[in-house]
Amino acid sequence: MIDLFKDAILPGIESEFVRGFDQRERREQVANALYTWLVNDAKKKPVPDLPDRLQRMRKRIDLMVEDMEIKFVNNKPVVKVAGSSEDTLKALRLGTDWFVGTDDVVELVVTGLFDE
Q: What is the rounded (10 degree) CA torsion for 106, 62, 28, 65?
């Protein structure tokens, strides 16, 4: 018996993720989604140079998204990065000395990818 989801639907979803993420505007949408979360939703400490820190993190996010890949492992999307982008992804997940991270980074990436 054919597992319709596994054999027919899932490969189409995976290819849509990959194809969509190859478009520059989609990567910009993902960067915007991550940055919007950081500015609007992440808990931040009241540090005096917060605007500067946010701008530095924006640049790091932009670089990270350029290097980012989306893969599927056990039918779930997984975000992969390399080099210095690993530090940025880790900071978004675990937080830093000035903001609290989120376990929902992959969800933010997926939401950003398909946000119109």
A: -40
pLDDT in tens, 69-105: 888 788 788 889 998 899 999 999 999 999 999 999 9
For the chain, the domains span 4-114
Q: Which amino acid is at 81?
A: V
Q: What is the DSSP secondary-structure string of 7-69?
A: IIIHHHHHHHHHHHHTSHHHHHHHHHHHHHHHHHTS-B---TTHHHHHHHHHHHHHHHHHH-E
Number of Cβ atoms within 10 Å of the Cβ of 32: 16
